[in-house]
Amino acid sequence: MSARRLHVLIFGAVFAAAVVLASLGYLSLRRWEHAAELQLREQARDTVTMAAEKVEMAVVRAEQDGVASLQAAALAPGFGPAAVDAWRAAHPLFDAVYLCDRDGHVLYPVRVSPDDVQSIAALRGEISEGFWERGGRRHLEAGGRVILAAVIPGASGPGAPPGPLLLGLRRDEQTLRRDVLAQVLGGPEGKSALVVLDGRGRSVFSSGSLESAAPVLTVPFGEALPAWRVALYQPAGLSPRDMVRRQTVIFMAAFALLLGVIGAGLVATYRLQRRESEIARLKSDFVANVSHDLKTPLSLIRMFAETLEMDRVPDERRRREYYGVITRESERLTRLIDNVLDFSRIESGRQRYDLTVGPIEPIVHDVLDSFRHPLEQRGFTLDVGIAPDLPDVAVDAEAMKQALANLLDNAMKYSADRGKITVVARAEQGGVALEVADQGIGIPVAEQERIFEKFYRVGRSETQGRRGSGVGLALVKHIVEAHHGRVTVESRPGEGSRFTLYLPAPEPGAV
Ligand code: ATP
Ligand code: MG
Question: 353 alpha carbon to ligand 1 midpoint, in Å?
């Protein structure tokens, strides 16, 4: 199986796994969402039911206490309206008290208003014979108000009304709200509010602010508060549904992030892998190019040396020319081998530069001298402009010669013959700028960054027809950067290129 197919297979598998994971995650999230909402709802219901029971219990207890104390008063000698008035003063929860005997005589209130008549009639109408016998308590509604009905034993003694007595106690809503509801439901309840609604759905009491809150659920009270209900209000965003939604969104976002990371990982791996294989390809090109570059000068040297050795060249001028070729080709070989050796030292981190502050001209002249002959041979015009009074800079002379030689070599290699090559040295910001410009083939803008990468060559070497190992500019870059400088390129395809090395002024105190 080809490496490409293997990659597609692996990426496909990871992608499919991610998709399966995503859908499983989504499904279980939905299920969880449902269950969580139910549970939150259940919890809310428990809260409200408990609150309703607490209120109911408090009401029943207050009523029991009231009935018990009135019953005690009724058993005391001399019980009459005055005693009931005294009792009422002590029990503000009830705003009306009715007492009547079995024959229908109203013992209290003394003056009966039409309202009272209606209540008493309702009271008597609801009470069966059995209730008179058995005693006990029950709640009934009259005129929209709740009245507690109870049968209490009558008083004994002279002048006292004969028992048993029917007692009716009407609750005062104001006091109920203040003494019971506020006591039981009040206090900090968090962000939600409990609201008590009466039989007509009006809010009687609320334990907190209802601003931007919505009812979540409603639970009825028991028998003590017939038709009344308690409702749980929660601010928008706090209701079980909203809370679950928010959790779900957070989960989904986390999940999406996870998938994104997996995706980014895939892409990064793919890129890395592609880069690796490109470097592998470049490396094999490099080996082929270096071998070729070594072979060409070697075979030239050998050919000319053999010719000379066999004394086949009678002409002195020719002989000189052959010696020249041998010298030039060995120089080229040296440069190539230096390049490769330095490159390998740089790669293994063993390259050291020895910077010494000094003039730059001798270095430039040295390099130009070694190129003069080959340039002439190939019909190049060399234009040199070295500014006078260049400042001294800190350089490693050998390394700088190598960098310049690489630029000149490129200028020659990537020009058609008979071009013009310009070398300029000028002062710049206290340091020196060295320019090598040609009128050669130029470099496409998109490639101008990459040519400084190791092994990188514009186009395939075969199609270009110019051999090279692709490490020359990587070396140049490494060398100038070791000099705390930089290298730039300006170039237009078909018009030529200009490479500039900037070497900064030496730092004060540098040797
Ligand atoms: P070598 O390691 O032998 O120098 P090389 O010349 O191919 O090999 P570099 O000097 O690093 O490698 O140059 C990288 C590439 O940049 C070249 O292959 C060439 O495509 C492009 N290049 C460099 N200098 C020039 C130039 N003056 N004009 C046009 N293209 C250039
Ligand atoms: Mg080169």
Answer: 23
Cα-Cα-Cα-Cα dihedral sign, residues 156, 158, 163, 166: negative
Task: With beta carbons less than 8 A apart as the criterion, state whether 414 and 350 touch.
Answer: no
292-296-301-304 Cα dihedral, nearest 10 degrees: 150
> Is the CB of 457 within 6 Å of ligand 1?
yes
- Reference 107, options 172, 170, 163; nearest CA is 163
What does the pLDDT look like over 188-201, one tens digit per residue?
A: 667 788 899 988 88
Q: Beta partners for 171?
A: 94
Provide φ and ψ at 312, rounded to 5°.
-90, 0
472 C-beta closer than 6 A to ligand 1: yes
- Best residue among 336, 340, 451, 464 to mutate for probing ligand 1's pocket (most ligand atoms within 8 Å of CB) is 451
Residue 138: half-sphere exposure toward Cβ, Cα within 13 Å: 15
Q: Is the beta carbon of 411 within 6 A of some atom in ligand 1? A: yes
State mean pLDDT over 138-150.
85
Does the beta carbon of 468 lie inside 6 Å of ligand 1?
Answer: yes
DSSP-based three-state secondary structure for 494: coil
Q: Which secondary-structure segment (H or E) carries 194?
A: strand 193-197
The secondary structure of residue 43, as a DSSP letter, is H
All structural domains of the chain:
1-238 (no CATH), 352-503 (3.30.565.10)
| 440 Cβ below 6 A of ligand 1 | yes
C-alpha radius of gyration, the chain, whole number: 53
- Ligand 2 center to residue 224 CA distance, Å? 101
Check if 285 has its Cβ closer than 6 Å to any atom of ligand 1: no
Each residue's pLDDT tens digit, 477-491:
999 999 999 999 999
Is the Cβ atom of 167 under 6 angstroms away from ligand 1?
A: no
Nearest residue (by CA) to ligand 1, atom 25, is 410
With a CB cutoff of 8 Å and minimum separation 6, the contacts of 288 are none
The CA distance from 94 to 170, in Å, is: 5
Q: Could you tell me the maximum CA-CA distance found in the chain, to the nearest angstrom?
A: 171
Which of 291, 339, 410, 415 for mutating ligand 1's site (highest number of atoms within 8 Å of CB)? 410
Which residue has the CA at smallest separation from atom 17 of ligand 1?
457
| Bond from prior residue into 109 cis (ω within 30 degrees of 0) | yes
What is the average per-residue pLDDT within 119-136?
82
